[in-house]
Each structure stands twice: as C-alpha cells, then as structure tokens.
C-alpha cells in the first residue's frame, strides 16, 4: 500500500541546538522550570521548529552510562512531542538525583516540564 506522506517523529540534526552561540542565547534569555531531577531552560525562537540542547554534566552524574541514559530518555520525550513544542529552543540540565532514578520517573519528569511549558505559553 502507498500511504500519503507520513509524519516522521525522528530526531534530526535540525532539531538540535548545534552551536555555542545557540546555547548562549537560550542561557541568556530563558524561562526556567525545575524539579529535583531536571532543570529546563526555554526561550521563544523565531524558527518554526523546536530545538533541543542537552547539558548533562559529568559533575552531576558521574557514570557515562547514566548520563547517556538520561540523554536518550530526554531525546525520546522531545521527539514524541516536538510538534507541540514548535517555536521554542530548549536546554535540559540534570541534577545529581537524575542518575539514581528509573527511566519511567525521568520520562515523567521531562513530560511534566513540557506540559508546564505549553501551559505557560
């Protein structure tokens, strides 16, 4: 069967904050949402698509396996919701406790932040 153009929920390079300048713009003019696991910095963007940046510090989560797991969970949550997050540049930072929780709790945390963002828009 031939389907019409499918909506792709992929995480492309165009969906990322790629340069230091893009990150610094978000850090300068950001609205901040925090809980005990994550801090999310959000800035309105002139571009129509949402962009995600990750700043998962080794100082906060020592083991690379856990840092990579956090990144995967956040990317997946963003990938599934990027259509509703259009027009935002988002940087996610982790806190020390983020390395000690399950993927389900971490996913719930990032989704709560995205819900707050859309509610406060």
Care to describe what's here?
The structure is a single chain. By secondary structure, the chain is an alpha+beta fold. The protein has a single domain (13-120), classed as Ribosomal Protein S5, domain 2 (2-Layer Sandwich), CATH 3.30.230.10. It is 37% helix and 19% strand. The protein has 3 helices and 4 strands, in the order αβββαβα. α2 links the parallel β3 and β4. The longest helix is centred in the middle third of the chain and has 18 residues, at 64-81.
Tell me the CATH architecture. Answer: 2-Layer Sandwich
The structure class reads: alpha+beta
CATH class descriptor: Alpha Beta
Regions with little confidence, pLDDT below 50 for 5+ residues: 1-7
Q: Which overall shape is indicated by the principal axes computed on the Cα atoms?
A: globular
- From the 3D structure, determine the CATH topology: Ribosomal Protein S5, domain 2
Short overview:
The chain is an alpha+beta fold and 121 residues long. The chain has helices spanning 20-28, 64-81, 103-120, and strands spanning 31-34, 38-44, 51-55, 88-94. Strand 3, helix 2 and strand 4 form a beta-alpha-beta unit.
Secondary-structure map with pairings?
Blueprint: H1 20-28, E1 31-34, E2 38-44, E3 51-55, H2 64-81, E4 88-94, H3 103-120
Parallel strand pairs: 3-4
Antiparallel strand pairs: 1-2, 2-4
Helix pairs in contact: 2-3
Question: What structural keywords apply?
Answer:
121 residues; 37% helix; Ribosomal Protein S5, domain 2
């Amino acid at each position: 069967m031939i389907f019409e153009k499918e909506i792709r929920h992929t995480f492309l390079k165009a969906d990322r904050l790629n340069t230091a300048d893009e990150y610094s713009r978000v850090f300068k003019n950001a609205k901040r949402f925090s809980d005990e696991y994550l801090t999310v910095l959000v800035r309105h963007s002139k571009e129509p698509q949402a962009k995600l940046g990750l700043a998962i510090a080794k100082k906060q989560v020592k083991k690379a396996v856990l840092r990579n797991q956090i990144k995967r969970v956040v990317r997946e949550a963003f990938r599934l919701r990027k259509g509703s997050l259009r027009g935002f540049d988002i940087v996610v930072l982790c806190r020390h406790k983020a390395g000690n929780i399950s993927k389900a709790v971490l996913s719930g945390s990032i989704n709560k932040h995205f819900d707050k963002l859309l509610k406060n828009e």
